[in-house]
Write a structure and sequence with these properties.
With about 300 residues, this protein is mainly β. The protein contains one helix and 25 strands. The longest helix has about 35 residues. It is elongated, with a radius of gyration of 32 Å.
Length: about 300
């Protein structure tokens, strides 16, 4: 009789026990699902630019370490582009302008500006109705439209050379307009100074001379002369004639990556170790001897 009452008492508590067990099971399920649920995707930074050309050691950092990138990659706002020694990179911005980075250079791409942290780049700025992108180098700001210019940042300050068009340079100590054929120099904490430049060493391979051959069939960008460093003072340079030339070009999305291999007749046996390529746009590019009758661009 007592045993029967005991079973009946336990049976009376079963609904409560099952309710508690169900609640515990539900809680455990909710906790498990919450811990396994992936976090909601966050909005990525908008694409700010495009890496049109990456030649050599070109790396891009988005805040999580540098990674090597290839031509055609998209670049988000905040990206930092770095070129190693001898490398080149061409970046197209949303306003249609392009910057061509020299080796050993570093830039940061922001929403409406480009910060040159070190090195040098060539800016090709087209005409635009929108606000021009601001180019920053330390405390110096440069703006330009329908112009071509070089911007360099070194240990002493900032140097810009304008090959065509006009550029505006603003610093803490003043603001100046720089015209074609002029070079502006801004030492750290000093007022900018502007002076005409007779010749500019064109490291871009001819971008500064873009307009020189327009409308002239077969026009080149200049002439090449051999300079004999061991000759007497006042000795004229010797014009070099091309004996063989081969051109290799790859076109990708309207951008041509071109490699030109030239061999010259050396006019006479000299101790010369330098070449100067003189352009029509008052620019020049230096070459060095890398073997018998073989020359390379410096």
């Amino acid at each position: 009789m007592n045993e029967t009452k005991g079973w009946r008492g336990m049976a009376a508590h079963w609904p409560r026990v099952l309710l508690i067990a169900g609640a515990l099971a539900l809680s455990a399920t909710v906790i498990f699902v919450a811990t396994q649920k992936e976090s909601s995707p966050s909005r990525s930074a908008p694409l700010q630019a495009r890496l049109e050309l990456a030649a050599g050691d070109v790396k891009v950092s988005f805040g999580a370490g540098e990674q090597s990138h290839v031509s055609g990659a998209g670049l988000a706002a905040g990206a930092i582009v770095t070129t190693g020694h001898g490398a080149r990179a061409l970046v197209r911005m949303p306003d249609g302008s392009t910057i061509f980075l020299r080796g050993d250079s570093k830039v940061k791409l922001d929403q409406d500006s480009i910060e040159l942290q070190n090195g040098e780049y060539w800016l090709d700025a087209p005409p635009t109705d929108r606000r021009a992108i601001v180019h920053r180098s330390g405390d110096v700001e440069i703006t330009a439209a329908e112009a071509g210019l070089s911007i360099q940042k070194n240990a002493k300050g900032t140097v810009i050379y304008v090959a065509r068009g006009n550029a505006t340079l603003s610093a803490k100590a003043g603001r100046v307009e720089v015209k074609a054929g002029e070079q502006a120099t801004v030492a750290t904490g000093q007022s900018p100074s502007v002076a005409p430049l007779a010749f500019w060493d064109d490291w871009t391979g001819g971008m500064a001379d873009f307009e020189s051959g327009r409308g002239i069939p077969g026009a080149g960008t200049g002439s090449i002369y051999g300079v004999d460093e061991g000759a007497a003072a006042g000795t004229s340079a010797q014009r070099l004639e091309i004996s063989r030339q081969s051109v290799h070009a790859v076109v990708r999305d309207g951008i041509s990556e071109t490699e030109v291999d030239q061999t010259f007749f050396q006019p006479r046996r000299t101790r010369g170790r330098g070449l100067v390529l003189v352009h029509r746009a008052r620019t020049r590019q230096r070459y060095g001897l890398c073997g018998r009758d073989r020359w390379r661009a410096d």
